[in-house]
TrEMBL record:
Protein name, UniProt field: Endonuclease
Keyword DNA repair: yes
Pfam families, per the entry: Exo_endo_phos
UniProt keyword Iron-sulfur present: no
Superkingdom classification of source: Bacteria
InterPro entries: Endo/exonu/phosph_ase_sf (IPR036691), Endo/exonuclease/phosphatase (IPR005135), TDP2-like (IPR051547)
Keywords: DNA damage, DNA repair, Endonuclease, Hydrolase, Magnesium, Metal-binding, Nuclease
One MF term in the entry's GO annotations: metal ion binding
Known cofactor(s): Mn(2+); Mg(2+)
Organism annotation: Streptomyces luteoverticillatus (Streptoverticillium luteoverticillatus)
Chain ranges of the Endonuclease/exonuclease/phosphatase domain: 20-236
Gene3D superfamilies registered for this protein in UniProt: Endonuclease/exonuclease/phosphatase
Length: 248
């Protein structure tokens, strides 16, 4: 199935960029399986949620990047969980971590953001993990859209764990302003909860208008990855999208 999703490429007028979104539960599970899955997806960009953010979190982030054959860009402890990794194909123009307003009694949330260049194509990237509280989550969704608009690029991608379903208010807010990758061009598996858990799609990849979604969904049948790896790596499944990003 992986072969059905377009590979990374650079053309005269666009670049095909593979974006992976993955909640890794602070690397508390099987890190070897996690790294195998990420490598098998062959991503250009990984938007991580629940990256380690406390004791020696930078060392853990460096380990994941190294074992996944990627490089650390931004986030982790400084964004309260969201993180961005990339392949060497990406040129980092700008990176910034943003802490979101927090309601008393709820976890601190944040955004990891970057502006990347692939050839002559520029892509804004936001990795997010939104609140479990419906009202706080909706407010965060509005701030997220403001942050995307403020990246200063024509094309952007938002990827993360929304803690909301497609029929939810915050998911609907984002899907009303951005392209929901799975809804536009479904590929692979829809539901992002771990195999054997109740079926839900709470993780997603969104793109701004002008970005062509070539395919988006949970990759299954990855070469060198067993279904047991998908269960062992973390409590979410990865979401992989291939996007054609125009120049300019």
């Amino acid at each position: 199935m992986l072969a059905d999703l377009p590979e990374s490429s650079t053309e005269a007028d666009a670049s095909v960029v593979r974006v992976l979104s993955y909640n890794i539960r602070s690397m508390r599970d099987d890190v070897a399986a996690l790294s195998r899955i990420i490598r098998a997806c062959a991503p250009d960009v990984v938007c991580v949620q629940e990256a380690p953010r406390f004791f020696r979190w930078r060392k853990a982030a460096a380990r994941l990047a190294r074992e996944s054959e990627l490089v650390y860009v931004t986030g982790g402890g400084t964004a309260s969980g969201p993180m961005i990794l990339t392949s060497l194909r990406a040129h980092v123009e700008h990176a910034e971590d943003v802490l979101l307003p927090r309601r008393r009694g709820l976890h601190q949330r944040g955004l990891a953001t970057a502006v990347l260049r692939f050839g002559r194509a520029r892509l804004g990237v936001v990795s997010c993990h939104l609140s479990i509280d419906a009202d706080e989550r909706y407010a965060q969704g509005r701030l997220l859209l403001e942050r995307v608009a403020g990246l200063g690029v024509s094309h952007a991608v938002v990827a993360g764990d929304l803690n909301d379903r497609p029929d939810g208010r915050t998911f609907g807010l984002l899907a009303g302003e951005l392209q929901d990758g799975w809804a536009v061009e479904p590929w692979g598996r829809e539901h992002t909860t771990r195999l054997g858990d109740p079926l839900q799609r709470i993780d997603a990849v969104f793109a701004t208008g002008g970005v062509e979604v070539l395919g988006c969904g949970v990759p299954m049948g990855l070469r060198g990855v067993a279904e047991s790896d998908l269960r062992a790596a973390t409590d979410h499944l990865p979401v992989l999208a291939a996007l054609r990003v125009p120049v300019g």
